[in-house]
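Final report, Chapter 2: Outcomes

The project's central promise was a pipeline that accepts a single protein chain and returns its three-dimensional structure in a standardized token representation, suitable for archiving and comparison. That pipeline is now operational. To close this chapter, we reproduce one record exactly as it appears in the project archive, with the input sequence first and the structure output second.
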Amino acid sequence: DWVNDSLGIFASKTGVGVMMAATFPMLVNPEFLTAAKPNMLPFELAPLADDHPHANLMRNSASADWAFAWDSLTLPTLNITGLCDRVFLDKDIVDGWLERLANVTREEWADCGHLVPLERPEKLVASLAKFGSGL
């Protein structure tokens, strides 16, 4: 709650730059972080417009309702968890959700964080293709 609430304030008052500079090292794998640093620092300070997609995400993420009947899902589900996410990943919560899914394939990636499609796109495509071919 603290992280979600504070990131919303950061983004609304100073833009995405401060929010990303404050959290990015704890969200992604070290290799991706090193490659991204030249494009992220220094950053501009500019408040986000209310209709900006990041403003919408920050404004609503803290109040998302996750009280869903997870055990009612029976469709095949692939869950990929990036273990380098030290901001949003709460393994106990993820484990609890996944235990309630009837038909889940679980992958935990030690070489990835919060931004799976950006950090490991080739690995993600291979995993999705393998999962899809098994359906």
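Archive annotation: The longest helix spans residues 2-14.
This record, like all others produced under the grant, will remain available to the consortium after the project formally closes.
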